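Worked example (supplementary).
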Amino acid sequence: MTTETATTITRTIDARGSFCPGPLMELIRGIRESNIGDVLEVYSTDSGSRIDIPKWIEKAGHGLIAVETREGYDAIVVEKRR
Amino acid sequence: MQRIVILGGGVGGTLTANLLVKRLRRRIERGAVEIVVVDATGQHVYQPGFMYIAMGGERAERLERPERSLLDHRVSLLVGEIERVDPADQRVYLKGGQELGYDFLVIASGARIVPEEIEHFEEEAHHFYTADAALRLRGALDAFAGGRIVIGIAGMPYKCPPAPLEVAFLIESELRDRKLREQSELHFCSPIGRAFTIESVSDMATPILEEKGIELHTFFNVEAIDAERKVVQSLEGEELPYDLLILVPPHRGQQFLIDSGLAPAPGGWVPTDRHTLQVGQRPNVFALGDATELPLSKAGSTAHFEAPVVAERISAAVMGREPSGKHAGYQGRVMCFFEIGDGKGTLLRFDYDHPPKPPKPNQLWHLGKVVFNKTYWHTVPKGRV
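After joint prediction of all chains, the assembly is encoded as:
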């Protein structure tokens, strides 16, 4: 899935170079420290993140806004909903 | 005179010190090089044994020896708590006012557990990350007469990644032996989308969980404990009631590393080059073992394979040559035994480029772990294996 985002990003988590489950754990830390309604963007170079992170977002009841493939990494955008 | 200061007398610090002596003996003997290990307690603790206090009749006194007895006599040992490090000035400050300059610094200060970060953890949850806690868990297991056991992980990264799965397998096996299995439920909670971080190990462990009837809950990041209702809650919104709760406590790097600007808060893990083990852009500062933020197991085995690299790189710098040979760089090598229960185990052996391919569990690997634990004092810290 590739979606253009027009959302305002509250926080960017650069987890590039960190391996599974590093980016997911970094996102979880970011979510814990954020407020409901905040939009977080996580960068990952680990191909597993494209699958794991959206699955976690669904389970945790947050909103997956976008998964974008950029040059050499993925950017996954999530809204904290609870 | 060049001084090499090593912070921490665990596996990584002790082995690095002893390997440096092997490489720099003549320089040390003529007073051109000094090696100092700074340790908070002066006692070397074999932490992998803690799990066996809870699960296998191990005793705390057998897991501890004076650090002095494990260090080569040419290494100085300074017992004291570190307050901070000044990397610009190349000095280490100890609580109580003592200070020490260094030419090379090795950060081998390990990880600490912070159960207090989760409310009610200390009253409600058991763990096996200290000898005392493991003994309390043993007591709770002895008193257990059936019910719901929940095993989970209250924060990543943590020491000895396979340990919670091993504990689940060993408890299941014990409950069968004690004829309590039918009256008991076992739940294993993983913070990620599968049973274990490394996919091949997860693929091995998942059918064993199924076979043993241990229910796997994925994406369960422990958030809170409701002590009144005896329920553990996840960040993802799930709740699991328990009669016996066993949680890996949250871990952090040492506070003095955060205070010294060597590691970012709140984790306190030291940013370390994955091959050279150098810290940041500082050519004379190295880190190994649990203290680093490398995406590797926090385990003695990691420090065991990293120490020869740190020793080679510092020796080369002292001697004014380039690091060379098989220990010039670290390739992510880790090797550890993995208990499955019923007297069986397997082996995890991997590096940055090669994930583990665990062999079919058998009694040999379990015995391998028993022998390794018993012979540790004579082998690993002294650089004999």
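Two points are worth noting when inspecting this output. Chain A has a mean pLDDT of 88. Residues 11-79 of chain A form a domain with the Translation Initiation Factor IF3 fold (CATH 3.30.110.40).
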